[in-house]
Amino acid sequence: MSYGTSIPDIYRQVGVYCGQILKGAKPADLPVLQPTKFELVINLKTAKSLGVTVPQTLQVAADEVIE
Questions:
Q1: One-letter-per-residue 3-state SS of 30-51
Q2: What are the φ/ψ torsions at residue 38 (nearest 5 degrees)?
Q3: N or C: which end of the chain has fewer CB within 10 A?
């Protein structure tokens, strides 16, 4: 199981920052952004090999389930 920031969302934020800098904003004046989107990924194959049972409700709540 993995819970962390969404990589595509982070890349989008980097693009926005670069756009602001290219338009003339000073990097020191830009605010520090925190991640806003998080993802839960469950690897069922690994869980089964470890003998861990993942509840169905958690599987439904996950953003991605690897079988």
A1: CCCCCCCCEEEEEEHHHHHHHC
A2: -120, 155
A3: C
